[in-house]
Amino acid sequence: MTQIGTLVGRNDKDEELLTPSEVAKLFRVDPKTVTRWAKSGKLSSIRTLGGHRRYRASEVRSLLEGQQQAANE
């Protein structure tokens, strides 16, 4: 089993962060699409010290669940 995401301590709360590739895999899209979503405001991102984008796993899961519910209707 592979581990997805990185845990980052923030205000006494651990938060799982995903890379653009990990998010893209979940949605079955290209990582560039995930970056466009972040730029358009569909998905918020956190920047690392090196300038790389990371996405909150909880927000990604909520968006994914909403997409799945819309597909089922």
List the helices and strands and how they pair.
Blueprint: E1 6-10, E2 13-18, H1 20-27, H2 31-40, E3 46-47, E4 53-56, H3 57-72
Antiparallel strand pairs: 1-2, 2-4, 3-4
**How would the global form be characterised?**
globular
- Strand neighbour order, sheet with most strands: 1-2-4-3
Mean pLDDT: 84
- Beta-strand content: 15-25%
Q: What is the gyration radius calculated from CA atoms?
A: 13 Å
Count every helix, treating DSSP H or I runs of 4 or more residues as helices.
3
* CATH A-level architecture: Orthogonal Bundle
Largest sheet: 4 strands, antiparallel
Structure summary, number of beta strands: 4
Would you give the CATH topology? Multidrug-efflux Transporter Regulator, Chain: A, Domain 2
The first-to-last residue Cα distance is: 32 Å
Q: What pattern of helices and strands is seen along the backbone? A: EEHHEEH
Q: Could you say how many structural domains there are in total?
A: 1
Identify low-pLDDT runs: none
Please identify the structural class as seen in this structure.
Answer: alpha+beta
Helix content: 40-55%
The top level CATH class name: Mainly Alpha
